[in-house]
Amino acid sequence: MAACTGEPISWPRLEAHALAPDAGVTAHVAECAACRACLDEIERDVVALPGLPAAPAPKKQKWWLLGLVPALAVVALILFVLRPRDDRNLLAVKGVGDVEIELVRERAGVITYDSRTFTPTDRWKVVVTCVASAHFGLTVDVRDGHTIDHPLPPAYVGCGNRVVVPGAFTLDGKDPNKVCVYVEDQSACVTVRPE
């Protein structure tokens, strides 16, 4: 390759000339075989990559969404706390104190506390929690909206944490069942719905 006849023109300047002709570069390459050879190579280049598309504009943050999510969480919490409850699983029994009633479900060997849904194959037990020094009698009945059943015989239990009332029962039907525990003149009921 021949040497440049004057001051060599840089490769980037030759590339710029190929895109937008420059009079100074045109005059130089007309006299200089070395720079003309470089310009010819640039013009023959078929490997050139296409230009990149314009970058998309950044999305604007919706400022009102920042406050909406926490506000919806607060509303959901308020609705949960204030939801109407037809069940009351806590009794205040004279001479005994507070008695909490809980249902325990056994399904295929898996025990679930405070469950509120049933299938016909589930087994149920009633447990009570109260002050450890008290004893009292209780009865259990199940109401399905049409009939009242007494699946467990009346029992006399001593208090403690999750004391199991003797016996077990099953629930069936297509309607919700209300399981009620009676202590003296008070009752506590829990509604269990079919799955």
Describe this structure in words.
This protein starts with 10 loop residues before the first helix and ends with a strand. It has 2 domains: 1-49, no CATH class; 90-194, Immunoglobulin-like (Sandwich), CATH 2.60.40. It has helices spanning 11-19, 23-31, 33-44, 63-82, and strands spanning 90-93, 97-107, 110-113, 117-118, 123-129, 135-143, 148-149, 155-158, 163-164, 177-183, 186-194. Strands 4, 6, 7, 8, 10 and 11 form a 6-stranded mixed sheet that branches. Strands 1, 2, 3, 5 and 9 form a 5-stranded antiparallel sheet that branches. The protein is rod-shaped and about 120 Å long. Helix content is 26%, strand content 31%.
SSE layout:
Blueprint: H1 11-19, H2 23-31, H3 33-44, H4 63-82, E1 90-93, E2 97-107, E3 110-113, E4 117-118, E5 123-129, E6 135-143, E7 148-149, E8 155-158, E9 163-164, E10 177-183, E11 186-194
Parallel strand pairs: 4-11
Antiparallel strand pairs: 1-2, 2-3, 2-5, 5-9, 6-7, 6-8, 6-10, 10-11
Helix pairs in contact: 1-3, 2-3
